[in-house]
Design goal:
139 residues; two-stranded antiparallel sheet; 3 helices
Length: 139
């Protein structure tokens, strides 16, 4: 089994076929979308392929260490995941082909007008093993 991260993007990915932003959907369309996602996750739980998934709120900040007790916080000016990543799902599947198959299914979640979004999802495998210190050299 191999773990994959399925990333749902707000922007930064190619446009979906049904490209109406969620903030323009009706409450019923949002409910239908969330129900599809929950049903999809429940089905994968039964097959043992679901690990976890979350939708992300639009808020967020950048933080870095800047000395003892002084973490600076900023809201930009660089591209931020809160502007790019809408949510994610982690799956544990037998093959890359299965990960792609499930991502394709997830892409069909309903959106505006109840029609499938056909959004692009990023499929990222988890790093399978830690690289040894001899394999990772920085110059």
């Amino acid at each position: 089994m191999a773990k994959y991260l399925l990333l749902k993007h707000y922007r930064g990915a190619p446009a979906a076929v049904n490209d109406v932003p969620m903030d323009q959907w009706t409450p019923e369309e949002i409910s239908a979308h969330v129900q599809y996602m929950n049903d999809f996750a429940a089905r994968l739980e039964k097959s043992g392929e679901f690990v976890d998934g979350q939708a992300l709120a639009p808020e967020g900040s950048w933080v870095r260490y800047d000395g003892e007790g002084r973490p600076p916080v900023t809201d930009g000016p660089f591209a931020e995941t809160k502007d790019l990543i809408a949510g994610w799902m982690v799956i544990d599947v037998d093959s890359h082909e299965r990960a792609v198959e499930l991502a394709g299914e997830l892409s069909a979640a309903p959106g505006a007008g109840g029609k499938p979004i056909h959004e692009w999802l990023e499929v990222r495998p988890f790093l399978a093993a830690k690289p040894s210190t001899t394999e990772c050299t920085f110059k």
